[in-house]
């Protein structure tokens, strides 16, 4: 009987030690992420940053954004903002000093009078289809009362798109 009591006591003591943390338990190794799991996590992170990562620089994309938000998309910066970042127009270095950005928001003077004028109306311009290097001839020109025109020949002709 004493032997059974000793075995039972020993068993109880071992159980108590295990459950009380006196014997360090083996650390659980984290399950390594599979390529699929890693891609899913990256997709989730990208999805949360879509607003900041989206580059909108097509005629229709920018025109739609202007109509909906009454401002240019976040990927546009003015010439003075670009210059402050180190942009030099003659070097064609905008993509180097401001990756993902396009020039837009500066006043367009309409000196040649090719766009309709009205009292109090001001025009602004935005580069379209810019990727890198020197700016191209594609521009979207929009007014303070939300008329929107495009030019693909650097202001020689305009087509109303909104």
TrEMBL record:
<feature type="active site" description="Proton donor">
    <location>
        <position position="154"/>
    </location>
</feature>
<dbReference type="GO" id="GO:0004521">
    <property type="term" value="F:RNA endonuclease activity"/>
</dbReference>
<keyword id="KW-0964">Secreted</keyword>
<comment type="similarity">
    <text>Belongs to the ribonuclease N1/T1 family.</text>
</comment>
<keyword id="KW-0732">Signal</keyword>
<dbReference type="InterPro" id="IPR001887">
    <property type="entry name" value="Barnase"/>
</dbReference>
<feature type="signal peptide">
    <location>
        <begin position="1"/>
        <end position="29"/>
    </location>
</feature>
<dbReference type="InterPro" id="IPR000026">
    <property type="entry name" value="N1-like"/>
</dbReference>
<dbReference type="InterPro" id="IPR016191">
    <property type="entry name" value="Ribonuclease/ribotoxin"/>
</dbReference>
<dbReference type="GO" id="GO:0003723">
    <property type="term" value="F:RNA binding"/>
</dbReference>
<dbReference type="GO" id="GO:0005576">
    <property type="term" value="C:extracellular region"/>
</dbReference>
<keyword id="KW-0378">Hydrolase</keyword>
<protein>
    <recommendedName>
        <fullName>Ribonuclease</fullName>
        <ecNumber>3.1.27.-</ecNumber>
    </recommendedName>
</protein>
<dbReference type="Pfam" id="PF00545">
    <property type="entry name" value="Ribonuclease"/>
</dbReference>
<dbReference type="GO" id="GO:0016787">
    <property type="term" value="F:hydrolase activity"/>
</dbReference>
<feature type="active site" description="Proton acceptor">
    <location>
        <position position="125"/>
    </location>
</feature>
<keyword id="KW-0540">Nuclease</keyword>
<keyword id="KW-0255">Endonuclease</keyword>
